[in-house]
Protein backbone atom coordinates (compact mmCIF):
# COMPACT_ATOMS: atom_id res chain seq x y z
CA UNK A 1 0.00 0.00 0.00
CA UNK A 2 1.24 3.46 -0.95
CA UNK A 3 -0.47 6.59 0.37
CA UNK A 4 0.02 10.34 0.12
CA UNK A 5 -0.02 12.48 -3.03
CA UNK A 6 3.72 12.61 -3.76
CA UNK A 7 4.29 8.95 -2.91
CA UNK A 8 1.49 7.87 -5.25
CA UNK A 9 2.81 10.15 -8.02
CA UNK A 10 6.29 8.63 -7.75
CA UNK A 11 4.82 5.10 -7.74
CA UNK A 12 2.92 5.86 -10.94
CA UNK A 13 6.05 7.38 -12.51
CA UNK A 14 8.12 4.33 -11.57
CA UNK A 15 6.13 2.10 -13.93
CA UNK A 16 5.10 -0.30 -11.17
CA UNK A 17 1.81 -1.99 -11.92
CA UNK A 18 -1.03 -0.64 -9.79
CA UNK A 19 -3.83 -2.94 -8.73
CA UNK A 20 -6.12 -0.31 -7.20
CA UNK A 21 -6.01 3.49 -7.08
CA UNK A 22 -8.43 5.14 -4.66
CA UNK A 23 -8.96 8.89 -4.61
CA UNK A 24 -11.24 10.93 -2.37
CA UNK A 25 -14.35 12.03 -4.25
CA UNK A 26 -13.75 15.77 -3.88
CA UNK A 27 -9.99 15.64 -4.54
CA UNK A 28 -8.58 16.90 -7.83
CA UNK A 29 -4.93 16.29 -8.70
CA UNK A 30 -4.00 16.74 -12.38
CA UNK A 31 -0.63 14.98 -11.96
CA UNK A 32 -2.16 11.80 -10.55
CA UNK A 33 -5.03 11.86 -13.03
CA UNK A 34 -2.69 12.30 -16.00
CA UNK A 35 -0.27 9.59 -14.86
CA UNK A 36 -3.15 7.22 -14.14
CA UNK A 37 -4.51 7.78 -17.65
CA UNK A 38 -1.07 7.22 -19.21
CA UNK A 39 -0.62 4.00 -17.23
CA UNK A 40 -4.19 2.84 -17.93
CA UNK A 41 -5.00 2.73 -14.23
CA UNK A 42 -8.63 3.33 -13.28
CA UNK A 43 -9.15 5.86 -10.49
CA UNK A 44 -11.87 4.75 -8.11
CA UNK A 45 -13.55 7.72 -6.42
CA UNK A 46 -14.41 6.86 -2.82
CA UNK A 47 -15.51 8.65 0.37
CA UNK A 48 -12.76 9.65 2.77
CA UNK A 49 -14.07 7.09 5.26
CA UNK A 50 -12.93 4.25 3.00
CA UNK A 51 -9.43 5.71 2.80
CA UNK A 52 -9.40 6.08 6.58
CA UNK A 53 -10.24 2.38 6.89
CA UNK A 54 -7.32 1.48 4.63
CA UNK A 55 -4.78 3.45 6.64
CA UNK A 56 -4.74 5.66 9.73
CA UNK A 57 -1.77 7.59 8.36
CA UNK A 58 -2.05 10.94 6.55
CA UNK A 59 -3.13 9.67 3.14
CA UNK A 60 -3.97 13.16 1.75
CA UNK A 61 -6.97 11.72 -0.05
CA UNK A 62 -5.21 9.12 -2.19
CA UNK A 63 -4.13 5.50 -1.69
CA UNK A 64 -2.88 2.95 -4.20
CA UNK A 65 -2.24 -0.77 -3.96
CA UNK A 66 0.73 -2.09 -5.94
CA UNK A 67 -0.01 -5.32 -7.78
CA UNK A 68 1.35 -8.55 -6.28
CA UNK A 69 1.72 -10.02 -9.78
CA UNK A 70 3.00 -8.67 -13.07
CA UNK A 71 0.12 -8.27 -15.50
CA UNK A 72 0.82 -9.34 -19.07
CA UNK A 73 -0.73 -8.48 -22.44
CA UNK A 74 -3.28 -10.95 -23.75
CA UNK A 75 -1.86 -10.66 -27.26
CA UNK A 76 1.54 -11.76 -25.92
CA UNK A 77 -0.02 -14.70 -24.09
CA UNK A 78 -1.77 -15.84 -27.26
CA UNK A 79 1.46 -15.57 -29.24
CA UNK A 80 3.35 -17.61 -26.62
CA UNK A 81 0.63 -20.28 -26.54
CA UNK A 82 0.75 -20.71 -30.31
CA UNK A 83 4.55 -20.69 -30.32
CA UNK A 84 4.55 -23.58 -27.82
CA UNK A 85 2.10 -25.46 -30.00
CA UNK A 86 -0.57 -25.56 -27.29
CA UNK A 87 -4.34 -25.30 -27.64
CA UNK A 88 -5.55 -22.05 -26.05
CA UNK A 89 -7.36 -22.54 -22.73
CA UNK A 90 -8.24 -19.25 -21.04
CA UNK A 91 -10.42 -18.13 -18.14
CA UNK A 92 -12.24 -14.79 -18.05
CA UNK A 93 -13.51 -13.61 -14.66
CA UNK A 94 -16.22 -10.96 -14.79
CA UNK A 95 -16.18 -8.93 -11.55
CA UNK A 96 -15.07 -11.63 -9.13
CA UNK A 97 -14.57 -9.45 -6.06
CA UNK A 98 -13.90 -11.92 -3.24
CA UNK A 99 -10.15 -12.26 -2.77
CA UNK A 100 -10.28 -15.83 -1.46
CA UNK A 101 -12.59 -16.96 -4.24
CA UNK A 102 -10.15 -15.47 -6.73
CA UNK A 103 -7.20 -17.25 -5.13
CA UNK A 104 -9.05 -20.57 -5.09
CA UNK A 105 -10.04 -20.13 -8.74
CA UNK A 106 -6.43 -19.36 -9.69
CA UNK A 107 -5.25 -22.52 -7.95
CA UNK A 108 -7.79 -24.70 -9.79
CA UNK A 109 -7.10 -22.98 -13.11
CA UNK A 110 -3.36 -23.57 -12.86
CA UNK A 111 -3.91 -27.22 -11.96
CA UNK A 112 -6.28 -27.64 -14.92
CA UNK A 113 -3.78 -26.26 -17.42
CA UNK A 114 -5.34 -22.85 -18.00
CA UNK A 115 -2.72 -20.61 -19.60
CA UNK A 116 -4.14 -17.25 -18.59
CA UNK A 117 -6.69 -15.61 -16.31
CA UNK A 118 -8.24 -12.40 -17.65
CA UNK A 119 -9.79 -9.86 -15.27
CA UNK A 120 -11.41 -6.46 -15.89
CA UNK A 121 -9.62 -3.24 -15.05
CA UNK A 122 -12.36 -2.26 -12.63
CA UNK A 123 -14.53 -4.26 -10.26
CA UNK A 124 -12.22 -7.20 -9.64
CA UNK A 125 -10.63 -8.57 -6.48
CA UNK A 126 -7.29 -7.08 -5.49
CA UNK A 127 -4.50 -9.57 -6.16
CA UNK A 128 -2.86 -9.25 -2.77
CA UNK A 129 -1.15 -11.49 -0.24
CA UNK A 130 -4.47 -13.12 0.69
CA UNK A 131 -5.12 -14.04 -2.94
CA UNK A 132 -1.58 -15.35 -3.29
CA UNK A 133 -1.91 -17.45 -0.14
CA UNK A 134 -5.31 -18.88 -1.09
CA UNK A 135 -3.95 -19.80 -4.51
CA UNK A 136 -1.15 -21.79 -2.78
CA UNK A 137 1.34 -19.93 -4.95
CA UNK A 138 -0.46 -20.77 -8.22
CA UNK A 139 -0.49 -17.08 -9.14
CA UNK A 140 3.28 -17.33 -9.54
CA UNK A 141 2.79 -19.88 -12.33
CA UNK A 142 -0.16 -18.59 -14.35
CA UNK A 143 -0.39 -15.44 -16.46
CA UNK A 144 -2.86 -12.76 -15.41
CA UNK A 145 -4.13 -10.17 -17.90
CA UNK A 146 -6.03 -7.05 -16.94
CA UNK A 147 -8.26 -5.82 -19.76
CA UNK A 148 -10.38 -2.69 -19.53
CA UNK A 149 -13.32 -4.01 -21.54
CA UNK A 150 -14.09 -7.72 -21.41
CA UNK A 151 -16.52 -7.39 -24.33
CA UNK A 152 -13.62 -6.21 -26.49
CA UNK A 153 -11.55 -9.08 -25.07
CA UNK A 154 -14.23 -11.59 -26.12
CA UNK A 155 -14.23 -10.14 -29.64
CA UNK A 156 -10.42 -10.29 -29.82
CA UNK A 157 -10.42 -13.95 -28.78
CA UNK A 158 -13.13 -14.81 -31.29
CA UNK A 159 -11.11 -13.18 -34.08
CA UNK A 160 -8.15 -15.27 -32.87
CA UNK A 161 -10.11 -18.47 -33.40
CA UNK A 162 -11.02 -19.06 -29.75
CA UNK A 163 -14.53 -20.21 -28.83
CA UNK A 164 -15.83 -18.21 -25.85
CA UNK A 165 -18.34 -19.97 -23.58
CA UNK A 166 -20.12 -18.40 -20.62
CA UNK A 167 -21.18 -20.48 -17.64
CA UNK A 168 -24.52 -19.13 -16.46
CA UNK A 169 -27.64 -20.47 -14.79
CA UNK A 170 -29.62 -18.60 -17.46
CA UNK A 171 -28.48 -21.10 -20.11
CA UNK A 172 -30.69 -23.87 -21.48
CA UNK A 173 -27.67 -25.98 -22.46
CA UNK A 174 -26.40 -28.51 -19.94
CA UNK A 175 -22.63 -28.64 -19.42
CA UNK A 176 -22.78 -32.43 -19.78
CA UNK A 177 -24.99 -32.53 -22.89
CA UNK A 178 -23.54 -34.46 -25.82
CA UNK A 179 -23.73 -31.30 -27.94
CA UNK A 180 -21.45 -29.36 -25.56
CA UNK A 181 -18.02 -29.48 -27.19
CA UNK A 182 -15.08 -28.11 -25.23
CA UNK A 183 -12.10 -29.63 -27.02
CA UNK A 184 -10.77 -26.83 -29.25
CA UNK A 185 -9.33 -23.38 -28.53
CA UNK A 186 -11.46 -22.20 -25.66
CA UNK A 187 -12.13 -19.40 -23.19
CA UNK A 188 -14.50 -19.93 -20.26
CA UNK A 189 -16.30 -16.95 -18.70
CA UNK A 190 -17.35 -17.01 -15.05
CA UNK A 191 -19.33 -14.20 -13.44
CA UNK A 192 -19.78 -12.15 -10.31
CA UNK A 193 -20.81 -13.81 -7.06
CA UNK A 194 -23.73 -11.36 -6.81
CA UNK A 195 -25.30 -11.08 -10.26
CA UNK A 196 -23.38 -13.43 -12.56
CA UNK A 197 -22.03 -12.45 -15.97
CA UNK A 198 -22.94 -9.01 -17.30
CA UNK A 199 -25.58 -8.95 -20.09
CA UNK A 200 -23.14 -7.33 -22.54
CA UNK A 201 -20.73 -10.23 -22.23
CA UNK A 202 -23.53 -12.81 -22.40
CA UNK A 203 -24.59 -11.31 -25.73
CA UNK A 204 -21.03 -11.30 -27.08
CA UNK A 205 -19.97 -14.91 -26.34
CA UNK A 206 -20.38 -17.86 -28.70
CA UNK A 207 -22.31 -20.16 -26.38
CA UNK A 208 -23.68 -20.58 -22.86
CA UNK A 209 -23.71 -23.60 -20.59
CA UNK A 210 -25.09 -24.32 -17.14
CA UNK A 211 -24.08 -26.75 -14.43
CA UNK A 212 -27.02 -29.02 -13.53
CA UNK A 213 -28.20 -28.49 -9.95
CA UNK A 214 -30.13 -31.44 -8.56
CA UNK A 215 -30.70 -30.30 -4.97
CA UNK A 216 -32.68 -27.53 -3.33
CA UNK A 217 -29.92 -24.88 -3.28
CA UNK A 218 -30.02 -22.74 -6.40
CA UNK A 219 -26.35 -22.04 -7.00
CA UNK A 220 -22.75 -23.08 -6.42
CA UNK A 221 -19.92 -21.00 -5.01
CA UNK A 222 -18.15 -19.43 -8.01
CA UNK A 223 -14.81 -21.09 -7.24
CA UNK A 224 -16.48 -24.50 -7.04
CA UNK A 225 -18.45 -23.87 -10.25
CA UNK A 226 -15.26 -22.83 -12.02
CA UNK A 227 -13.57 -26.07 -10.98
CA UNK A 228 -16.49 -28.11 -12.31
CA UNK A 229 -16.37 -26.42 -15.72
CA UNK A 230 -12.59 -26.42 -16.10
CA UNK A 231 -12.29 -30.11 -15.34
CA UNK A 232 -15.06 -30.95 -17.80
CA UNK A 233 -12.78 -29.31 -20.37
CA UNK A 234 -9.89 -31.44 -19.11
CA UNK A 235 -12.05 -34.58 -19.35
CA UNK A 236 -13.21 -33.88 -22.91
CA UNK A 237 -9.70 -33.05 -24.08
CA UNK A 238 -8.38 -36.30 -22.57
CA UNK A 239 -10.97 -38.28 -24.52
CA UNK A 240 -9.98 -36.51 -27.73
CA UNK A 241 -6.25 -37.13 -27.25
Automatic annotation (TrEMBL):
Pfam families: SpoU_methylase, SpoU_sub_bind. This is 23S rRNA (Guanosine(2251)-2'-O)-methyltransferase RlmB. InterPro entries: Alpha/beta_knot_MTases, Ribosomal_eL30-like_sf, rRNA_MeTrfase_TrmH, SpoU_MeTrfase, SpoU_subst-bd, tRNA_m1G_MTases_N. SUPFAM superfamilies: alpha/beta knot (SSF75217), L30e-like (SSF55315). It comes from Fibrella forsythiae. The keyword Transferase applies. NCBIfam families: rRNA_methyl_3. Keywords: Methyltransferase, Transferase. CDD domains: SpoU-like_RlmB. It comes from the Bacteria. Residues 1-72 form the RNA 2-O ribose methyltransferase substrate binding domain.
